[in-house]
TrEMBL record:
InterPro entries: Glyas_Bleomycin-R_OHBP_Dase (IPR029068), Glyoxalase_6 (IPR041581). PANTHER family: CONSERVED PROTEIN, HYPOTHETICAL FUSION PROTEIN. The lineage of its organism: Bacteria, Bacillati, Actinomycetota, Actinomycetes, Kitasatosporales. This is VOC family protein. It holds the Pfam family Glyoxalase_6. It comes from the Bacteria.
């Protein structure tokens, strides 16, 4: 077994607590730890899933997706979130503060932006 393992994905934001709140509501996660400028959230015990952390970065610049101009802030990563009902979960994500991307590359995936502008995808298995 490898002595290393990926434990958490960290997203920068203007306000770590605000962005953590969005993902808490969206994913049904729980707060694991928090500090004034950092929050760690994760799935309820025994349910599986990946922990997310959020760090306040005053100079944070949201990525542009899809990329348009050479000087745009590049998307560094995105989250894929599997759902049972793409339509209802897209509507719920928007109600929680997400914004639907104008460009949608696939019928079985919805690209959205979280309140800090990070792209994420909701997808439904066929």
């Amino acid at each position: 077994m490898s002595p290393t393992r990926l434990s958490t994905v960290v997203l920068d934001a203007h306000d770590a607590h605000e962005l953590a709140g969005f993902y808490l509501r969206l994913l049904g996660y729980e707060v694991r730890a928090e500090e004034p400028h950092w929050v760690l959230i994760g799935p309820p015990p025994g349910t599986g899933g990946t922990s997310l952390a959020f760090e306040t970065e005053p100079a944070y610049v949201p990525p542009v997706w899809p990329g348009r101009d050479p000087g745009d802030q590049q998307m560094m990563l995105h989250l894929d979130i599997q759902v049972d009902d793409l339509g209802s979960e897209t509507a719920r994500a928007v109600a929680e503060g997400a914004r639907l991307a104008e460009y949608q590359p696939q019928d079985d995936v919805r690209v959205l932006f979280d309140p800090s502008g990070h792209p994420f995808c909701l997808w439904q298995a066929q």
